[in-house]
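hey so i finally got around to running the thing on that chain from the lab meeting. sorry it took forever, my laptop kept dying and i had to restart like 3 times. anyway pasting the input first so we r on the same page abt which one it is
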Amino acid sequence: MEPLTGMGVLALMGAAATIAGASEDLESDVGSQSNPNSQVQLAPQMMYPHRIYNKAISGEPPSNALMCAIGGTVATVLLGMNASVILALTIGSLVAAMIHGTFSVSSHLGRIASQNRFKQPLYLDIVKSHTPVIIAYSFITTICILVISYLMVVVLGHPFPLPLLAFIWGITIGAVGSSTGDVHYGAEREFQNVEFGSGLNASNSGNIVRKGESGVRNGYDNSWFCAKFGGPVTGIAFGMVVFLSGWITTVFDASKSAAMGWESVLAGVIIVIILAIWNRKIEVAARNAYGTYKEDQDAEVAA
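ok and heres what got predicted. didnt touch it at all, straight out
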């Protein structure tokens, strides 16, 4: 395969990965299937009832891995029956999204029912309004992952089958969404009443912000808020993972020589170091702009 062709395919994969990352994060925000979900789950027990969809089938990595693997398996079966690529990937993604939606409803109903003793109501309008959105985001995420996996198998000649690649990328996108987008959702959205950088004090456990811009807050509000930054950042993060990992092995093809294999490893290390330094500079700039919590806390103790 020509290098220019490979770079073009990588660009397409990176674009699909960016869309997938954003939709994955926003889906988890609508359904509260994120690391901060434990605070949503804890809220009724701390006497803070809410109107937030609370599914958390599992952690995002295994949940997305299952979803994408189902889509990849269905698509592979259809491709084996000589169905068109577009039809196979679309139907596979639709089946995966519907199964994901089924799990979401059963999980949400089960969680809320178990919290009845804490006087947490079950709002059927939340179930009816949020579930289709969850399914829609799930479909977008799955079909983008299947496009990436299909291009890797057919164009780049990857030895792994489509369902296995979809499974691996599902774990990856869940991990990226859980580590990147959740910081924005949990720290900035659920605890807007807590000072920036203060962390989660034990006394604030479950005391999530429950009032939205208009009325009581729900998953729609979380998604609207996170679509402005958390979702796009997650998309960019996953897009960089897909593109840069593919770029290294395309430019430094280890199958051509052992020397190029070591060059690909060295290039990967250099990229990680650059990103680590860049991340540190961003963190320092944020602390300088918003202040350091520890200094404020020490000043209060001294006073």
